Amino acid sequence: MISPETSAAADMAEDTAAAWADLPTPERLPVRTMLEEFETVNVLAPLVRCSKLPFRHLVSLYETHITHTPMILAEEFSRSQQARVSDLSTSSDERGVFWMEPRRHPPRVEPGALGALEALRISDERDADDPRPPSYPPPTTVRVTKTLHDTRPTSRLPPTPTPPTQNSRLVRGALLAQMASPNGPSLADAAELIAPHIDGLDINCGCPQRWAYAEGIGCALLRKPELVADMVRCVHDRMGWEWPVSIKIRVDPDLRRTEQLVRTALAAGVSHITVHGRTRHQASTDPVSLDKLAFAVECVRGEVPTVANGDLWDLEDAHKMRRECGVHGVMAARGLLANPALFAGYDRTPVHAVENFVNLGLDYGFIFSLFHRHLAYMLESHFVKPEKTYFNALSSSVQVVEYLQTRGLDFGARRKVPMWDARRGYSLL
């Protein structure tokens, strides 16, 4: 005889399964549309050697809607099969599926920050050596509707089968490739090769490393607005003017240079602009200037969406950045390395995120050095100094897994976690 409790549990399981089965097909939207139409858009920054497939998949489990590849050298990518294999790996399951809330009001700078913006203008008055032309060309209106990414079947589902509000929309996440190039033709060649696997291209105009500057890429482009514009146009000419091309920049000590770069890029037809709130010469330990970030956003004049980056360690930092800079989205780098569940509201890496990463890393065949490094970042707040020293000395994935098992982590059992991923080992049911 079946007990009433067993029967009720079976009925509940059937109702839950039916709810999942009735989900609408997730919308596939260009990144620009996501930024324009939704209230909260969270972004993983392009991270050198770190924002590879397993980590991108991990953060997409925790409300990170847009992810980036690590910076790819366009010239190497276009001429070397080995570079293409090394620099890009993707999965049909790496993009998340999210309930997203439509934007009620356009983003704007918090009233209290407007005085700071005016002060920046006064302190940065034009002089006789002003590099700007008297006026800027009008922005090129680009309707970004096209993606060459060929969607394959995916097992990803949203965190819950029912929308949080009646206005919630089910949206699939996006993957952007960030590329660095000293010229437009090489960038267009690489874009053509990578386009079937991504949702858009981002041009790196902000890498501060000396080797990058010497190669004429990254921050070397901050004071070459015409070259940046030519690169954007080259990609559009090759891929079509509806294909998304964005740029990521840093603020310049001379804000007139920032304005010149932004306005020239808009005239070339960028789809959105990401701004890092430090200058080329500032160390990562220096505080980000939200005032200068807001200035750069104001230079855009709302003509394309903007994303702010720098010193984002928790949700309050994200809220503050949105309020004070008036941006459409926020981007985290080191904050997500330390806590991949940051945008889901966790103040430090939860245990289930570590378990998920171990499974993803082993499933995808992540090389040990990066697998180990990511776990060291995530577990830093959980370890005391002797434990950090011992963990850092481990020399294989087997040793890492065995050690974490002694700490109580369980990688084989089905787990109840606050998200859904239909890959083996992840379940709400």
TrEMBL record:
Transmembrane helix in keyword set: no
Keywords assigned by UniProt, alphabetized: Flavoprotein, FMN, mRNA processing, Oxidoreductase, tRNA processing
Family matches, as Gene3D superfamilies: Aldolase class I
Any one biological process term the GO annotation gives: mRNA processing
Catalytic activity: a 5,6-dihydrouridine in mRNA + NAD(+) = a uridine in mRNA + NADH + H(+); a 5,6-dihydrouridine in mRNA + NADP(+) = a uridine in mRNA + NADPH + H(+)
SUPFAM superfamilies given in the database record: FMN-linked oxidoreductases
Renumbered residue ranges of the record's region Disordered: 124-167
Entry GO MF terms: flavin adenine dinucleotide binding; tRNA dihydrouridine synthase activity
InterPro entries: Aldolase_TIM, DUS-like_FMN-bd, tRNA_hU_synthase_CS
Cofactor names: FMN
Boundaries of every DUS-like FMN-binding domain copy: 174-381
Keyword Oxidoreductase in record: yes
Protein name per Swiss-Prot or TrEMBL: DUS-like FMN-binding domain-containing protein
Organism of origin: Cutaneotrichosporon cavernicola
Gene for this chain: DUS4
